[in-house]
Design a protein that fits this description.
By secondary structure, this protein is of the alpha/beta class. The protein is built from 23 helices and 13 strands. Strand 2 and strand 3 form a beta hairpin.
Length: 520
């Protein structure tokens, strides 16, 4: 639960809000925490639900109040005599605390209980607290179950369905199942393994993984990405590949790496034009590190009412830490920065706070999350975003070189099960100068259709003919490409090794700039 509830009670906090869908688990943990802190003999616990009213949890008395209004009056006490040393657990009250009268009544109750050593603990789902109650209600996180807690749940389910097994699962399989269930609530984890056992008569890891994928998808902000890419299906990017391969050992031997003195890798940012392979690179990175890939949906964060964005970003980051180790793809990160300057005027600073929360988290989190951010433009990108400590490296993805275009053609023809020895890759690379990876893929796709329509297999001439009919983005967006190349000289590392001739030209240009006093 993060910080133990007893700490807040001892500090005199009048009202706590445990935001969770696992409400029964939350109450169980509150009661257990009071016992562990030896406070159960000091505090009497009373519970209110809209279905049952307010009653003593120990069953020593009947229902003393039905509605939330009657409950708040009871908490305040008759004639202003508030009852002391009581912990009131109130379920799902947010819908009742909307009118000015009920908001004031709750505020009065919060101030009364703090004078007599009583407390209110609210349990429910996401809530944008009314401004009038922000100073009296403190949010407390209920963490999702960790590995050991899930293992305990799984073991109880296995014991319950013992007759379904021909061979009892060993400790290693139980550990693997628990790791794959991280990110699920206790009930969803129990349902997942129960379904696995009943349907397969074994612990079905892929089924548990699928259940987690569905749960993550329902969060609305994180999406699990299935893919079949490998580091070999990424053409070029040789500098990036070397960089990432040196991080693989950390994730395969975390305990050894931590003992060695290493902290979790921060991840990388990829800046380049649309279609140059940045998202494909993220998939290849997840394959190389042998980690699941989750996509952070920037657009979803800003949907809904003001305040919902802040709740969404906190929930997404918390969920990402729960499912770690993983690769987290932040696609088109420039969208996160759009509107930052006008945030104070247009949305009371919500965008600014969300971005601040995200950037701080990137630098401060110690969870094994390898972040891969992509940007299609350098416009509106804050220089602080590229600072060391937030990323291991910032890479610039330029147009593919001659050799890289050959490799990209070979990869896409291989994917379509064609014999690559039959194609003239030098000619193909020559006729696609200035093409990005996505454009080369579209050339292959269109040539395949034309060959299929002609009732024959694809040949080099088909690809060349299609390529000659395409105007690449390097021609239609020439000014932006030049601006990007100027930017990347001083602020990013090329993902591919630049041919020596180009390196010499770049050095000469840089020396001329330095002599003339021009800076980046």
């Amino acid at each position: 639960m993060g910080v133990a509830i007893d700490v807040y009670l001892k500090a005199g906090y009048p009202a706590l809000y445990i935001q969770t869908l696992e409400q029964e688990r939350a109450m169980t943990e509150v009661i257990q925490n009071l016992r562990d802190a030896r406070l159960s003999g000091i505090f009497k616990v009373m519970c209110w639900k809209s279905t049952t009213g307010l009653a003593d949890l120990a069953g020593e008395s009947g229902v003393v109040a039905s509605s939330i209004e009657e409950t708040l009056k009871y908490i305040c006490g008759e004639n202003g005599e508030c009852r002391s040393n009581i912990v009131y657990i109130l379920f799902n009250v947010k819908e009742f605390l909307k009118s000015p009268i009920m908001i004031q009544q709750f505020r009065d109750a919060a101030y009364m209980v703090r004078t007599v050593g009583s407390h209110m603990i609210l349990i429910g789902g996401g809530w944008n607290v009314p401004e009038e109650l922000e100073d009296v209600i403190t949010f407390v996180d209920l963490e999702l179950p960790n590995r050991e807690e899930i293992k305990t749940v799984f073991q109880s389910v296995i014991d319950r369905y013992r007759e379904f097994f021909t061979t009892q699962p060993d400790a290693a399989l139980l550990q693997q199942a628990a790791e794959n269930a991280l990110g699920l609530t206790e009930l969803k984890a129990e349902n997942a393994i129960s379904l696995s056992i009943v349907s397969s008569e074994k612990i079905d890891i892929p089924l548990i993984r699928k259940e987690k994928q569905l749960a993550v998808k329902k969060s609305g902000v994180l999406e699990y990405l299935m893919h079949n890419e490998t580091i070999d299906t990424l053409g070029g990017f040789d500098v990036l590949k070397e960089h990432v391969s040196k991080r693989r050992k950390y994730f395969s031997n975390q305990s050894v790496a931590i003992k060695f003195g290493l902290r979790p890798p921060k991840g990388i940012m990829l800046v380049g034009l649309a279609g140059v392979g940045k998202t494909l690179a993220a998939k290849a990175v997840s394959a190389e590190l042998d980690l699941p890939l989750y996509k952070f949906d920037v657009g979803t964060v800003f949907k809904g009412v003001v305040g919902g964005s802040e709740e969404a970003i906190r929930g997404a980051l918390k969920l990402a830490e729960t499912v770690a180790p993983c690769v987290l793809l932040i696609d088109e990160m420039e969208k996160l920065m759009d509107g930052l300057e006008s945030s104070g005027k247009s949305d009371s600073g919500t965008t600014s706070r969300v971005i601040g929360t995200f950037i701080s988290w990137m630098q401060e989190t110690n969870s094994p999350i390898y972040k891969v951010a992509t940007c299609n433009t350098i416009r509106n990108l804050d220089a602080a975003l590229f600072r060391r400590g937030r990323w291991d490296a910032v890479f610039a993805v330029d147009l593919p070189t001659f050799e890289e275009r050959k490799a990209i053609f070979a990869i896409h023809l291989n994917k379509r099960k064609r014999n690559v020895d039959k194609f003239d890759f030098d000619e193909l690379a020559s006729c696609t100068e200035g093409f990005v990876g996505a454009e080369i893929e579209s050339v292959v796709e269109e040539a395949m259709y034309q060959a299929f329509d002609a009732d024959r297999d694809i040949i080099s001439e088909d690809l060349i003919k299609v390529a000659h009919g395409i105007i690449p983005i390097s021609m239609t967006d020439k000014e932006n490409i030049e601006r990007f190349r100027e930017w990347m000289k001083y602020r990013a590392v090329p993902v591919s090794r630049v041919p020596k001739a180009n390196i010499d030209v770049a050095k000469k240009q840089r020396n001329l700039r330095m002599r003339s006093g021009v800076t980046a």
